[in-house]
User: What shape does this take?
Amino acid sequence: MFKNSFDFLVIGSGIAGLNFALQASEYGTVAIVTKKELMESNSNYAQGGIAAVLDKMDSFDKHIEDTMKAGCHLNDKEAVEIMIKEAPNQIKRLIDVGVGFSKKQDELCLSKEGGHSERRIAHAHDTTGKEIERALIHQVRHHKRITIFESHVAFKLAESKDAIDRVSTPRQCIGAFVLDTDNNKILNFSAKATILATGGAGQVYERNSNPKIATGDGVAMAYKARAEIKDMEFIQFHPTALNKKGAPSLLISETVRGEGGVLVNSKGEQFMKNYHELKDLAPRDIVARAILEEMKHGTVYLDIRHKGSAYIKKRFPYLYENLWWHDIKMDKDLIPISPAAHFICGGIHTDLDGRTNIPGLFAFGEVAHTGVHGANRLASNSLLECMVFSGRAVDATKTYIEKEKSWKVGKL
Ligand SMILES: Cc1cc2nc3c(=O)[nH]c(=O)nc-3n(C[C@H](O)[C@H](O)[C@H](O)COP(=O)(O)OP(=O)(O)OC[C@H]3O[C@@H](n4cnc5c(N)ncnc54)[C@H](O)[C@@H]3O)c2cc1C
Assistant: This one.
């Protein structure tokens, strides 16, 4: 028998998993299974912010066009439109759950990042992901219908047994097998709906911006269960990660360039004007390729010293402190940088409500492929993707568990 039985099994405690869990708990019991501590996720390290049309100079059409351009028009236009039109509501929802976005008087401060034609990035200083996680975790921890399993690693999806032994067609997903790493025990979780919200796969690359948890487990488990996987070749490399011997490849947010930082080559020249009309704020793939070209002749740096010490310390407290530990003072020194693997645009293919081709299995967030990013993600569109598509999946999972009557027990 399965030891743990829930209506919804959510694998992953990033913003996508937490946002879903909170909303789905209205309709049933929820288990959140997560590899390490609840807070450890890509979401927790997001610095820049979350994109939404919030300024009267801006429009949905402009945000849609910027997203399609960054994605080389390989995006699914319908998914893009849904995400962008839903964005302002998601910012409101986050404020309602207690997220403290940076404000001036009563207005949200909006920053600009590469590929955006307007200021539209809501942020909490330079630790936006951490602030969103904090607010969601506070709600989740106090919820009676949500049970949290930290240090639990899912390693296999449980499939129903049916009369015909199918080779190529997926079977219904009825939960997952999970290793409790504190007690070294394998547990069986049964669920009416199983959700993969396991995030990215940056650790596949030697030089990457992701935390240790980002090993692509969700895609691997889904692939083994014969889920449809798409666009795995579209890996985004962030142009500016710290490049100093002995130091980790700490991500230097694009907002540093959005707020006036410039890239300079080993001769001290601002070179981006030679590569793109948007210069330092060109889409990420273009900036990353330009940096690699310049690196053939020496180290490339990011320079924001001209903004002054007081501004830098107030706007980028996290980066200032973390670079200081590596003997770099943002207000006095050039920051040596180079590109690093950052985000996976492809993943488990889903419809616009998180359904995969496997009955009972849903996916959203970075692990999923909805088509919103096309070949290359526009900056700050991924926290947005997590919020929008995890919210939309609530109805789809609720309908699924109401319709589905027969719950079978799987075997390892
Ligand atoms: C340094 C950095 C900065 C970023 N900045 C921004 C930004 O400013 N704006 C923006 O929009 N996006 C940004 N991104 C991207 C964004 O943070 C992620 O795409 C997004 O947070 C992914 O959220 P998620 O909920 O899908 O996955 P994650 O937040 O990665 O969460 C995945 C969860 O799954 C768990 N997990 C994984 N495998 C298993 C398993 N086998 N069993 C159990 N649990 C498992 C993990 O422990 C984790 O809890 C940034 C990413 C990084 C790394």
